[in-house]
Amino acid sequence: MVNSMKIDYLTPEGATLIEMGKRLARVRKQQGFSQTRLAEEAGLGVATLRRIESGQDGQMVSWIKLLKALRMTAAIDALLPERFASPMAEVLSAAKQRKKGRVAEPGVRWGDERE
Asked: What pTM was computed for the model?
């Protein structure tokens, strides 16, 4: 079993970079890439890949190139979906829909109307 740290909004940026680098190295190895080969596939220098895998800050474009070379661009879409709705927004939207659906049919009487 691999020890993996959970990343959340409380995780310091430095710790997040280190964990992301470890995860990248793990995926690279699982896919059978050496650092040299992945760096070549991504159009990056080996030193850049080593820095990223060691948890040092890397440019966003380097991460994009690496994810493309690893055929993991779906991870980008999962990270920043085209449309994002918070759970609270979904609940409020569903409540609005339920309210809209409460219109009584013509001729239906509830029993408390006055004639």
From this structure: 0.70
d(CA 42, CA 64): 9
Sign of the dihedral through C-alpha 48, 51, 55, 56 = negative
For residue 107, give the DSSP letter: T
The architecture that CATH gives domain 13-100 is: Orthogonal Bundle (1.10)
CA nearest to 35, candidates 16, 55, 61, 53? 53
Q: How far apart are CA 46 and CA 20, in angstroms?
A: 17
**Every domain of the chain and the residues it spans:** 13-100
- Each residue's pLDDT tens digit, 3-35: 778 999 999 999 999 999 999 999 999 999 999
CB 101 within 8 A of CB 94: no
Q: Is 112 exposed, middle or buried (0-12, 13-18, 19+ CB in 10 A)?
A: exposed
Among 8, 64, 12, 53, which Cα is nearest to 29's? Answer: 53
